[in-house]
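Form 7-S
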Amino acid sequence: MESTYSALKKRVRQTRLEQWASLFLTPEYYMHPPTPHSRPFIGLGQSVAGRIHQMRAGKGYLAAHPTWRSPGAYTSCPRCGLEPETFEHAVLSCPSRQHTRSCLLHGVTEVGPESPLWSSLPLLKRLAIFIGVTSTGFPPTMFPPTTPPASPPFWLSPPRVPPPVFRVFSLAEV
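Output:
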């Protein structure tokens, strides 16, 4: 009886996924196929999960991602100015994020759809911390630059730390 239930459950999920895919076509630019299960990074919190979704889709706040506001905008990385600021550059090769990357993301060598990063919860948690500490993928106006962008190719700004999400109260304050 249990094997019949499991088989039926699997078939229903597969049918539901096929119907979803036929009704809502995945855009050509999004390399990650739909799945009946939620992605592991969804549990990281709404803000970080949203940033990860946007950056994976190439539609986030990184300079090389297309935008409707300014289609001819400057696409070079505002931190190093050496390459276009793509998700891969921001996470894997930007020299100004090197220190944080070496502390948090050692062992991560790719961010593609088949990367082990997307199936490892410990790596995803470290990616979430990396995104928060470096403000990667956040709107540029959300965290003002810490160094004036006088000469972008040689400008290496220190990581910007976002404000804490919650405050811990002591028993005396309660």
